[in-house]
Amino acid sequence: MEKKEYLRSLSSVNDLIQAVYRSRKLGGGVPRELVTEASRVVLEGVRGAILAARDEMSLDGIKTDTDELVTLVEKEVEERMQHSLRRVVNATGVVIHTNLGRSLLSEAALDALTMAGTYYNNLEFLLEDGTRGSRQVHLNKLLCDLTGAEAALVVNNNAAAVLLALTAHASGRDVIVSRGQLIEIGGSFRLPEVMAQSGARLVEVGTTNKTYLEDYRRAITSETAMIMRAHPSNYRIMGFTSEASIRELAGLAREFELVLLDDLGSGVYIDLSEHGLPYEPTIMRSLEEGSDLVCFSGDKLLGGPQGGVILGRSDLVEAMARHPLARAVRVDKLTIAAMEATLHHYFDPERAAVEIPTLAMLTADPETLRKRARGLAKKLAACGDLEAEVIEDVSRAGGGALPMESLPTWTVALTSPSYKANHLEERLRAADPPVVCRISGDRVILDMRTVRDDETGLIAAALESIAASED
Ligand SMILES: *Cc1c(COP(=O)(O)O)cnc(C)c1O
């Protein structure tokens, strides 16, 4: 056949659309415009392929039957209908996985989100007298009651909290930071760069591994506005190290009337050592030891929505709330709703560790994880030559929290004589929903710490269909 004949044999856009509707495979809710657009795109693609074909062989390989085109249109429509932000199964064991959305929300936080999204609410409205209110009131009192702080402010994220604190209190002046704390987190939060953006001048003191109180003292001049401490989050310096404590820095700050800012990063409320995890300085401890301002993320160890919480002296917090930048980094009602519900859990810290998914996963009983691993391994019996082994391993907290800590966990390790680990990992990532896992040597590791009980079935189904298609 000639190219012309191939082209002539193609359906028209209208005929193709009719054929798509006759095949009835697409759901009822698909907009007609989308079907039209997909049909046009498919026909254009096929026409282009025919025109580009070099010989009879490649022409023969092009799908031109209307039935085949209908399948292509259906695929095109499905791709366009699929949301970009999708659920995934997190089998990496990393609880606060920034790339997978950090913290999951508690049931109560989800209910609050739904309420705030479904109905009008008193976001900035005083129900007592019908006048305008502040959106911050919903979290302020709660945060102060829980932590003993004088004042509170919640902004878009912790990066915004640090930027706002530096801009409001140190713009055009000096901020002293230890060289051991000039951190970069997640590639985009680099303390020196945030500092430059705020207009504050960074004054580095000490060395990478040792910084003494005297180093801070010697750096103080009439230009100094602030001493800042940053949690090293995702790294640790081991060996010969020394750092000035918050108590010492607070004394120095008092003496010279400077502001002491403590960027806690994760913001731990409960004493993790009571749950078999290493002790992390809590929010309250930093305040008690004399920080004027502390800030931390809402979606790391706190286990809430993305947010940046600022606590501390009223005069300092109020000046930040009034700063024009505060408007640019303010939180929305959904964040406030989810954050308020998350914070409520902390009135009962024991329950908080159960109700807040981040804390529940971090403190999960290894026996529970082993049972989950065994359950999944059993479900995989029908998966061809896929070998599933239940093994003990360690998981990481993630999110710059407890970076050196290995949490004992149980995993299902997969091997196959017929294909490689990275091939299996890729196939799992292409599943619906995608399953994200880690590779160790020639094995694919499914860590049960971050997998829900009701997700083991999804993983098994994904592996079954992979095994069937590899046969
Ligand atoms: C994570 C982190 C930040 C950034 O917080 P976001 O909420 O991600 O903006 C800033 N400082 C420290 C020490 C951190 O660990």
Regions with pLDDT < 50 over 5+ consecutive residues? none
CATH topology of the largest domain: Aspartate Aminotransferase, domain 2
Q: Biggest sheet, strands in spatial order?
A: 2-10-9-8-7-3-6
CATH homologous superfamily designation of the largest domain: Type I PLP-dependent aspartate aminotransferase-like (Major domain)
**Annotated CATH architecture of the largest domain:** 3-Layer(aba) Sandwich
- Report the sheet with the most strands, covering strand number, pairing sense and barrel closure: 7 strands, mixed
Structural class: alpha/beta
- Report the C-alpha radius of gyration, rounded: 28 Å
Which molecules are bound besides the chains? pyridoxal-5'-phosphate
Mean pLDDT across residues: 94
CATH class of the largest domain: Alpha Beta
- Give the helix tally: 20
| Beta strand count | 15
- How many separate domains make up the residues? 3
Which bin fits the share of residues in helices? 40-55%
Q: Could you write a compact summary of the structure shown?
A:
The protein is an alpha/beta fold and 471 residues long.
